[in-house]
Protein backbone atom coordinates (compact mmCIF):
# COMPACT_ATOMS: atom_id res chain seq x y z
CA UNK A 1 0.00 0.00 0.00
CA UNK A 2 2.80 2.39 0.85
CA UNK A 3 4.41 1.80 -2.54
CA UNK A 4 1.08 2.46 -4.28
CA UNK A 5 0.62 5.76 -2.50
CA UNK A 6 4.05 6.90 -3.63
CA UNK A 7 2.82 6.66 -7.23
CA UNK A 8 -0.49 8.40 -6.63
CA UNK A 9 -1.86 11.81 -5.65
CA UNK A 10 -4.54 12.78 -3.16
CA UNK A 11 -7.74 13.57 -5.08
CA UNK A 12 -8.20 17.12 -3.80
CA UNK A 13 -4.56 17.89 -4.55
CA UNK A 14 -4.91 16.48 -8.08
CA UNK A 15 -8.01 18.60 -8.77
CA UNK A 16 -6.27 21.71 -7.48
CA UNK A 17 -3.13 20.98 -9.54
CA UNK A 18 -5.15 21.28 -12.76
CA UNK A 19 -5.68 24.94 -11.93
CA UNK A 20 -9.49 24.97 -11.71
CA UNK A 21 -9.78 25.68 -7.98
CA UNK A 22 -8.16 25.51 -4.55
CA UNK A 23 -7.87 22.29 -2.52
CA UNK A 24 -10.58 23.54 -0.19
CA UNK A 25 -13.02 24.04 -3.07
CA UNK A 26 -12.02 20.66 -4.46
CA UNK A 27 -13.07 19.07 -1.17
CA UNK A 28 -16.48 20.76 -1.48
CA UNK A 29 -16.95 19.31 -4.97
CA UNK A 30 -16.02 15.84 -3.67
CA UNK A 31 -18.41 16.06 -0.70
CA UNK A 32 -21.21 17.24 -3.01
CA UNK A 33 -20.77 14.14 -5.16
CA UNK A 34 -19.69 16.13 -8.21
CA UNK A 35 -16.40 14.28 -8.67
CA UNK A 36 -15.89 10.83 -10.22
CA UNK A 37 -12.85 8.62 -10.64
CA UNK A 38 -13.21 6.18 -13.54
CA UNK A 39 -17.00 6.85 -13.50
CA UNK A 40 -17.32 6.02 -9.79
CA UNK A 41 -18.44 8.78 -7.42
CA UNK A 42 -15.37 9.82 -5.43
CA UNK A 43 -15.00 10.32 -1.70
CA UNK A 44 -12.65 12.42 0.43
CA UNK A 45 -9.34 10.63 0.85
CA UNK A 46 -9.42 8.89 -2.54
CA UNK A 47 -6.15 8.87 -4.46
CA UNK A 48 -5.52 9.33 -8.17
CA UNK A 49 -3.23 6.90 -9.98
CA UNK A 50 -1.66 7.19 -13.43
CA UNK A 51 -4.29 6.47 -16.06
CA UNK A 52 -7.26 7.35 -13.84
CA UNK A 53 -9.99 9.54 -15.34
CA UNK A 54 -11.09 12.25 -12.93
CA UNK A 55 -14.17 14.27 -13.82
CA UNK A 56 -16.04 17.15 -12.17
CA UNK A 57 -19.65 17.54 -13.29
CA UNK A 58 -18.82 15.04 -16.03
CA UNK A 59 -15.94 17.09 -17.45
CA UNK A 60 -12.56 15.39 -17.72
CA UNK A 61 -9.69 17.00 -15.83
CA UNK A 62 -6.24 17.06 -17.33
CA UNK A 63 -3.12 17.42 -15.20
CA UNK A 64 -0.87 20.36 -16.01
CA UNK A 65 2.32 19.37 -17.86
CA UNK A 66 5.54 19.28 -15.88
CA UNK A 67 7.20 22.69 -15.64
CA UNK A 68 10.38 22.60 -17.72
CA UNK A 69 13.46 24.82 -17.67
CA UNK A 70 16.01 24.06 -20.37
CA UNK A 71 19.48 25.45 -21.15
CA UNK A 72 20.46 25.25 -24.82
CA UNK A 73 23.80 26.00 -26.44
CA UNK A 74 22.28 27.62 -29.54
CA UNK A 75 24.22 27.24 -32.79
CA UNK A 76 24.65 30.03 -35.33
CA UNK A 77 21.71 30.07 -37.76
CA UNK A 78 18.97 29.02 -35.34
CA UNK A 79 16.29 31.71 -34.90
CA UNK A 80 14.84 32.45 -31.44
CA UNK A 81 11.19 32.36 -32.42
CA UNK A 82 8.24 30.01 -32.09
CA UNK A 83 6.94 31.03 -35.54
CA UNK A 84 6.37 27.76 -37.43
CA UNK A 85 6.94 29.57 -40.74
CA UNK A 86 10.60 30.01 -39.77
CA UNK A 87 12.32 26.84 -40.98
CA UNK A 88 15.18 27.11 -38.48
CA UNK A 89 13.16 28.20 -35.45
CA UNK A 90 14.49 27.24 -32.03
CA UNK A 91 11.49 25.08 -31.07
CA UNK A 92 11.83 22.88 -34.15
CA UNK A 93 15.56 22.65 -33.52
CA UNK A 94 15.10 21.25 -30.01
CA UNK A 95 12.18 19.02 -31.00
CA UNK A 96 10.87 18.68 -27.45
CA UNK A 97 7.39 17.09 -27.08
CA UNK A 98 6.27 19.87 -24.69
CA UNK A 99 5.43 23.34 -26.01
CA UNK A 100 8.41 25.52 -25.08
CA UNK A 101 9.35 29.12 -25.80
CA UNK A 102 12.68 30.95 -25.44
CA UNK A 103 13.38 33.39 -22.62
CA UNK A 104 14.61 36.46 -24.46
CA UNK A 105 16.56 36.43 -27.69
CA UNK A 106 19.91 35.51 -29.16
CA UNK A 107 20.51 36.80 -32.70
CA UNK A 108 20.57 34.36 -35.61
CA UNK A 109 24.31 34.94 -36.27
CA UNK A 110 25.07 34.62 -32.52
CA UNK A 111 25.54 31.45 -30.50
CA UNK A 112 25.60 30.29 -26.92
CA UNK A 113 23.36 29.98 -23.88
CA UNK A 114 19.63 30.55 -23.98
CA UNK A 115 16.84 29.30 -21.71
CA UNK A 116 13.59 27.75 -22.87
CA UNK A 117 10.57 26.98 -20.72
CA UNK A 118 6.82 26.38 -20.59
CA UNK A 119 6.53 28.67 -17.53
CA UNK A 120 5.29 32.09 -18.65
CA UNK A 121 5.64 33.72 -15.22
CA UNK A 122 9.39 33.14 -14.98
CA UNK A 123 9.88 34.56 -18.48
CA UNK A 124 8.46 37.91 -17.43
CA UNK A 125 10.56 38.03 -14.28
CA UNK A 126 13.88 37.16 -15.93
CA UNK A 127 13.32 39.58 -18.82
CA UNK A 128 12.72 42.50 -16.50
CA UNK A 129 15.72 44.74 -17.22
CA UNK A 130 15.53 46.53 -13.87
CA UNK A 131 16.42 43.38 -11.97
CA UNK A 132 20.08 43.54 -13.06
CA UNK A 133 20.26 39.92 -14.17
CA UNK A 134 23.73 39.47 -15.67
CA UNK A 135 24.43 37.99 -19.09
CA UNK A 136 28.04 37.35 -20.06
CA UNK A 137 29.36 37.27 -23.63
CA UNK A 138 32.65 36.56 -25.36
CA UNK A 139 32.97 38.74 -28.46
CA UNK A 140 35.44 38.75 -31.36
CA UNK A 141 35.87 41.85 -33.52
CA UNK A 142 37.62 42.73 -36.80
CA UNK A 143 40.10 45.33 -35.41
CA UNK A 144 42.53 45.56 -32.52
CA UNK A 145 40.89 46.41 -29.24
CA UNK A 146 42.18 49.60 -27.63
CA UNK A 147 41.93 51.00 -24.13
CA UNK A 148 39.68 53.73 -25.53
CA UNK A 149 37.33 51.07 -26.95
CA UNK A 150 37.10 49.31 -23.57
CA UNK A 151 36.44 52.56 -21.72
CA UNK A 152 33.72 53.76 -24.08
CA UNK A 153 31.99 50.37 -24.20
CA UNK A 154 31.99 50.27 -20.39
CA UNK A 155 30.57 53.76 -19.87
CA UNK A 156 27.65 53.80 -22.29
CA UNK A 157 27.10 54.03 -26.04
CA UNK A 158 24.28 56.01 -27.71
CA UNK A 159 22.14 53.51 -29.67
CA UNK A 160 18.43 53.10 -30.42
CA UNK A 161 17.57 56.52 -29.02
CA UNK A 162 19.12 55.87 -25.62
CA UNK A 163 22.51 55.42 -23.95
CA UNK A 164 23.43 51.92 -22.85
CA UNK A 165 23.87 51.31 -19.14
CA UNK A 166 27.37 51.07 -17.68
CA UNK A 167 28.68 47.53 -17.97
CA UNK A 168 31.76 45.40 -17.32
CA UNK A 169 34.10 45.04 -20.30
CA UNK A 170 37.42 43.19 -20.21
CA UNK A 171 40.00 42.72 -22.96
CA UNK A 172 40.99 39.07 -23.44
CA UNK A 173 43.20 39.27 -26.55
CA UNK A 174 43.83 41.92 -29.22
CA UNK A 175 40.62 40.90 -31.01
CA UNK A 176 38.50 39.35 -28.25
CA UNK A 177 36.76 40.88 -25.23
CA UNK A 178 34.33 39.84 -22.53
CA UNK A 179 31.26 41.92 -21.74
CA UNK A 180 28.65 41.52 -18.98
CA UNK A 181 25.30 43.19 -19.62
CA UNK A 182 22.18 43.71 -17.55
CA UNK A 183 20.26 45.12 -20.51
CA UNK A 184 18.72 43.36 -23.47
CA UNK A 185 18.44 45.91 -26.28
CA UNK A 186 18.01 44.61 -29.81
CA UNK A 187 21.43 43.56 -31.21
CA UNK A 188 22.95 45.63 -28.42
CA UNK A 189 26.58 44.46 -28.53
CA UNK A 190 26.77 44.58 -32.32
CA UNK A 191 25.30 48.10 -32.39
CA UNK A 192 27.69 49.28 -29.64
CA UNK A 193 30.67 47.98 -31.57
CA UNK A 194 29.44 49.46 -34.87
CA UNK A 195 29.13 52.87 -33.21
CA UNK A 196 32.85 52.70 -32.39
CA UNK A 197 33.79 51.49 -35.89
CA UNK A 198 34.17 47.80 -35.08
CA UNK A 199 32.41 44.82 -36.63
CA UNK A 200 31.56 41.73 -34.57
CA UNK A 201 32.88 38.55 -36.20
CA UNK A 202 31.76 36.16 -33.46
CA UNK A 203 29.45 36.53 -30.47
CA UNK A 204 28.86 33.81 -27.89
CA UNK A 205 26.81 34.05 -24.71
CA UNK A 206 28.58 32.13 -21.95
CA UNK A 207 26.38 32.81 -18.93
CA UNK A 208 22.88 33.91 -17.88
CA UNK A 209 22.61 34.84 -14.20
CA UNK A 210 24.00 31.84 -12.26
CA UNK A 211 23.99 29.37 -15.18
CA UNK A 212 27.04 28.93 -17.42
CA UNK A 213 27.52 26.91 -20.60
CA UNK A 214 30.21 24.81 -18.97
CA UNK A 215 30.81 21.69 -21.07
CA UNK A 216 27.51 21.90 -22.93
CA UNK A 217 28.38 21.37 -26.60
CA UNK A 218 26.97 23.47 -29.43
CA UNK A 219 23.49 22.23 -30.31
CA UNK A 220 23.05 20.29 -27.05
CA UNK A 221 20.60 21.12 -24.25
CA UNK A 222 19.96 20.04 -20.70
CA UNK A 223 17.37 20.68 -17.99
CA UNK A 224 18.39 23.15 -15.31
CA UNK A 225 19.16 21.50 -11.99
CA UNK A 226 17.07 21.96 -8.85
CA UNK A 227 19.94 23.91 -7.30
CA UNK A 228 20.16 26.26 -10.31
CA UNK A 229 16.39 26.84 -10.26
CA UNK A 230 16.41 27.46 -6.51
CA UNK A 231 19.04 30.17 -6.97
CA UNK A 232 17.24 31.70 -9.96
CA UNK A 233 13.97 31.87 -8.01
CA UNK A 234 15.78 33.62 -5.17
CA UNK A 235 17.26 36.14 -7.61
CA UNK A 236 13.89 36.93 -9.18
CA UNK A 237 11.81 36.78 -6.00
CA UNK A 238 11.19 40.54 -6.06
CA UNK A 239 10.55 40.66 -9.81
CA UNK A 240 7.20 41.47 -11.31
CA UNK A 241 5.73 41.59 -14.78
CA UNK A 242 6.62 44.63 -16.88
CA UNK A 243 5.30 45.98 -20.12
CA UNK A 244 8.59 45.17 -21.84
CA UNK A 245 8.64 41.57 -20.72
CA UNK A 246 4.95 41.01 -21.30
CA UNK A 247 5.22 42.40 -24.81
CA UNK A 248 8.04 40.00 -25.67
CA UNK A 249 6.29 36.91 -24.40
CA UNK A 250 2.95 37.89 -25.94
CA UNK A 251 4.62 38.22 -29.33
CA UNK A 252 5.87 34.66 -28.98
CA UNK A 253 2.47 33.25 -28.00
CA UNK A 254 -0.72 33.20 -30.09
CA UNK A 255 -2.94 36.06 -28.95
CA UNK A 256 -6.20 34.75 -27.48
CA UNK A 257 -9.41 36.70 -27.96
CA UNK A 258 -10.05 38.66 -24.79
CA UNK A 259 -13.81 38.33 -24.91
CA UNK A 260 -15.49 37.65 -21.58
CA UNK A 261 -17.80 34.73 -22.12
CA UNK A 262 -19.42 32.15 -19.93
CA UNK A 263 -17.17 29.07 -20.19
CA UNK A 264 -18.18 26.44 -22.70
CA UNK A 265 -17.86 22.77 -21.95
CA UNK A 266 -14.53 22.51 -23.75
CA UNK A 267 -13.21 25.44 -21.71
CA UNK A 268 -13.49 23.43 -18.51
CA UNK A 269 -9.87 23.52 -17.42
CA UNK A 270 -9.47 27.22 -18.11
CA UNK A 271 -12.42 28.73 -16.31
CA UNK A 272 -12.21 27.89 -12.65
CA UNK A 273 -14.49 30.77 -11.71
CA UNK A 274 -17.52 28.81 -12.83
CA UNK A 275 -16.79 26.19 -10.22
CA UNK A 276 -16.81 28.79 -7.49
CA UNK A 277 -20.14 30.07 -8.77
CA UNK A 278 -21.55 26.56 -8.79
CA UNK A 279 -20.06 25.43 -5.49
CA UNK A 280 -22.41 23.87 -2.93
CA UNK A 281 -21.85 26.92 -0.68
CA UNK A 282 -24.09 28.95 -2.96
CA UNK A 283 -27.66 27.82 -2.23
CA UNK A 284 -28.95 30.08 -4.92
CA UNK A 285 -27.09 28.21 -7.67
CA UNK A 286 -26.80 24.71 -6.21
CA UNK A 287 -29.77 23.32 -8.15
CA UNK A 288 -30.13 25.52 -11.20
CA UNK A 289 -26.44 25.66 -12.00
CA UNK A 290 -25.25 22.18 -11.12
CA UNK A 291 -23.87 21.82 -14.64
CA UNK A 292 -20.68 23.72 -15.51
CA UNK A 293 -20.84 26.25 -18.32
CA UNK A 294 -24.56 27.24 -18.22
CA UNK A 295 -25.21 29.54 -21.17
CA UNK A 296 -26.16 33.13 -20.56
CA UNK A 297 -29.72 34.08 -21.27
Automatic annotation (TrEMBL):
The keyword Cell division does not apply. Its EC number is 5.4.99.-. One of its GO terms (molecular function) is RNA binding. GO terms for biological process: enzyme-directed rRNA pseudouridine synthesis. The keyword RNA-binding applies. InterPro entries: PsdUridine_s_RsuA/RluB/E/F_cat, PsdUridine_synth_cat_dom_sf, PsdUridine_synth_RsuA/RluA, PsdUridine_synth_RsuA/RluB/E/F, PsdUridine_synth_RsuA/RluB_CS, RsuA_PseudoU_synthase, S4_RNA-bd, S4_RNA-bd_sf. Residues 233-297 are annotated as: Disordered. It catalyses: uridine(2604) in 23S rRNA = pseudouridine(2604) in 23S rRNA; uridine(35) in tRNA(Tyr) = pseudouridine(35) in tRNA(Tyr). Coiled coil: none annotated. Keywords: Isomerase, RNA-binding. PANTHER family: PSEUDOURIDINE SYNTHASE FAMILY PROTEIN-RELATED, RNA-BINDING S4 DOMAIN-CONTAINING PROTEIN. NCBIfam families: PRK10475.1, pseudouridine synthase. Belongs to the pseudouridine synthase RsuA family. This is Pseudouridine synthase. The lineage of its organism: Bacteria, Pseudomonadati, Bacteroidota, Flavobacteriia, Flavobacteriales. The gene is rluF.
Amino acid sequence: MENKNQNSTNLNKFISSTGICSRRDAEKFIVAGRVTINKNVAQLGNRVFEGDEVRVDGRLLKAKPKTLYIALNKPVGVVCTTDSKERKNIVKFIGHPERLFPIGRLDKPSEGLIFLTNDGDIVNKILRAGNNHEKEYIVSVDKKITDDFIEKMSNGIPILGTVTQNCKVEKITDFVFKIILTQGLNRQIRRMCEYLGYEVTKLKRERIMNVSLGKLKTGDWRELTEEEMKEINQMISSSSKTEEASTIIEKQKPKPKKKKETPKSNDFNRKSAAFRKNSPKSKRNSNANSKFGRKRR
